[in-house]
Amino acid sequence: MSAVPADPTPARSRWLALVLLCAASMMIILDGTIVTVALPAVQADLGLSASGLAWVVNAYLIPFAGLLLLAGRLGDLVGRKRVFLAGMALFTLASLLCGLATSEELLIAARFLQGAGGALASAVGLGMVVLLFPEPRERARAIGAYASVGAAGASVGLVAGGVLTDALDWHWIFFVNVPVGVVAGGLAVRVLAADRGLGLRRGADVLGAALVTAGLMLAVYTIVETERRGWTSARTLGLGALALALLAGFVVRQATAAQPLLRLRVLRSRNVAAANLVQLLTVAGMFGFQFIVALYMQQVLGYGAARTGWGMFPTALVIGLVSLFVSARLTARFGARAVLSAGLVLIAAGLGWLSQAPHDGAYAVHLLGPMLVASLGAGLALPSMAGLGMSDATEEDSGVVSGLFNTTQQVGAAFGSATLITLSAGRAEDLRAAGTSAAEALTAGHTLAFAIGAGLALLSLVISVTMPRTRRAPSAGSVQATEARQPIGA
């Protein structure tokens, strides 16, 4: 194993670049949820249909998830800085169009552009972080910071959406992105180091790109549509089979192409493959948990948008603090796999505790405690997942490996929200039909979703404990070296 090359970038510039990348990631991730609590106001103002209301959310999620892998590879080929700047520009312009939208069609089209821009900027972010910080201890801190803003972004989005909608109006949940995007783009031009990339001839796999993009977009579309059509409908099964066929075709193409989009050696790493699978399942449970908690607060406890948002704020705060100040230190001492497993135990415990919430519950008694436990677990687990997920990346493919890791996150979010919300609603409807009161029926549906989320976390735990143990670094601070089988640049 070769030594990690020295990084020529000055320390001050590296940390400034990290702040910039974290801010961009926060803005893009929270935009997936900031619209959630504002949906009633959007519907009332624009007269959206029920399907149109769903597409305000899905039009962002589908291109975001579908383009991440391709965007990551483009970063490796044409330069990560170029792809990041293009994504920020498109995201900022689309945010302005969303805020100015006066019709359902324009808002949905602008949300699609937002998702595409977000994919371009996000796909290369984690890859840029690991290349900026080759020293293991600094890299662990940097990954912890980046993971914390990504993990907390969904909760912050709920807070921001409620506050902006109540204080101003729904247009401002999009307008607020414009000055942030302009400033971030301007700083990125000066702060991020230019990289030329490998050149399109080193990996312009057009067929592979078409297969994976179409397959991922169709898979996410099929998942999110199950809320309306069900999991066993002919349309769901047919589209799901087609999506799987496209993704299988992509795998075959990567095994035979001279310059593949994603080298399959990445997936042959047990740590990388397991980290991506653990993330998919864990995010499914955690993302669904955030939506279900918000629904429980509003539908059962009768909270308004702003109060619901502030009720979710401790989740973001704990995830951020633990990821930044606790996770890296514990990983240095015990290893990423052990910290990941401990985090998953806490997530499962918190969600299991939430599954006992009553229909006449109180926030301080029945929600705050389990939310803090689950958030503590997420703060420990998510940076460890990110470190393990990037452990076999090299300088030539860090963008596509970062894109793969982000893709599993988004597919997990789509799967979790669609599955838990569908099962929760189905349980509530069955109980209402049997004569149960509305509050009790809704609570039973929500607690079922929490229990399923806990089960997903336990399944992730089983996978995590099967990860291979790796050589620990001699230095207590060498975090990534304790788990990574091949460091960046090796």
UniProtKB/TrEMBL annotation:
Residues 17-472 form the Major facilitator superfamily (MFS) profile domain. The keyword Membrane applies. Pfam families: MFS_1. It comes from Thermomonospora cellulosilytica. Keywords: Cell membrane, Membrane, Transmembrane, Transmembrane helix, Transport. GO terms for molecular function: transmembrane transporter activity. One of its GO terms (cellular component) is plasma membrane. This is EmrB/QacA subfamily drug resistance transporter. The chain crosses the membrane at residues 15-41, 53-71, 83-102, 108-133, 145-164, 170-192, 204-224, 236-252, 273-297, 309-326, 338-355, 361-382, 448-467. SUPFAM superfamilies: MFS general substrate transporter (SSF103473).
